[in-house]
Amino acid sequence: MAAPSSVKPFSPEETQTILHHLQQPAVFKNMTCGWPVLRWTAEHLSGCLGNKLIRFRLGRKVEKNTPLFETQCSYVEAKLAHFLSWTQDQPGTDVGPFSEYPKSEYWAYADYKYIALLFQDQPSMFEDVQWSELGFEGRNGRESTLWVGTEGANTPCHMDSYGCNVVLQVQGRKRWHLFPPEDTVKLYPTRIPYEESSVFSQVDVLHPDPRRFPAFQGARAHVVTLQPGQVLYVPRHWWHYVESVDPITVSVNSWIELEVDDMERVSEAVTKAVVFALKSTMSDDNNDDWLNPTEEGVSGHNENMQYLNLALRASAQRQRGLCHSKLTPYPRDTRPVKRDSRGQIRKNSDSVAFSVPFGPHLTPVQSQQEHSPAMRGVTTNDLEVSSDTAQLENKTECDSSLTQCRTCDCADGTSGSSSEDYEESIHTTISTNDLLDCLVHPDVIACVTELLLERHTGTHRSMTSS
């Protein structure tokens, strides 16, 4: 195993302190020198994997103004050697099952491959990934995933509910389009396709349809092209769309699960129960491929309700514990509880204000709006004030944006269409997915979650009292 060849700009402890205070995506540079994983090019991995078959996702290189979800892609099982021959596009070479997919028309992606499964017979390779040098003690390739793709390979825009992402680019470049949690309403979230802990956007962020999704024009894209050797940190609840921009790209991703808020776990249980109940009911308009391939399968209603009750019970117990602690006569530190990247409670030792050391070794991923001609001379504070004002106006005019479904695009406080469009829209047939999008809208789920917790604890009030 190769030893680090130079002194890193930040120690593991310093890196963890930085991650604890980062409120936006940022890129670490010069932190992975000497990591053996940097040798993991597609050619090197092909030699390591030999005849092992890997599942590739393939998509057409076309612009449709709609996201290409994983449920809409083609899939093949092939050797990495087949993939490499296909990318070289040389006549007469063995490309295996890729022969049915012209390279000029398709991109391919071996995405979200668990390194622990890929190299279960070569466990020494786990040590090539040295996340411990970033302060994640004991974490290596065993807890990571591998991503190998061609130019154009992409992951639909989505938000991960339960954790943050740390990504190392090994070969080629990937472009990340990131959006802050506050822009969720402008990204038109949907739970179809369904994947637990992931929420997808209905918008094709590279080629948005302004008529269907007018509010997206106000979303603040933070864009960065990740270079080999660089590490990107994506905070919790940040939306991201990822695309490969070089002929072959290889990256390693470690998803750091943070402590899950009880309300969030109940909300996910409610969402799952509703989605599975509606989508498991066959009807003329309810025959789409709605379960993401990453999900294990459809669970029954009884199982989903058991999961919901367990989540409610855990949340109620936590609330009772908090209420009990408030009755104790001992003084408590009332500052918010701070946790590290593993969800562990931090000691209140950082009483002095901490300034993130941005510079040549750590760069923030900036908002594209800050560099557009229309935004010249506008400060970050102005952006924050404008965003808050817009959100307040949006909440007032659209009633907490509950109208943001597939059939209504007034999330930015405007109709976004002419009277003719409106006359046409009121005659549109509502589908099962339209109904589902409204039922599992974040604001609706939050309200249902609160009501369920009140009912579970015996404190529910009359619906007419509010």
UniProtKB/TrEMBL annotation:
This is Uncharacterized protein. It comes from Larimichthys crocea (Large yellow croaker). It comes from the Eukaryota.
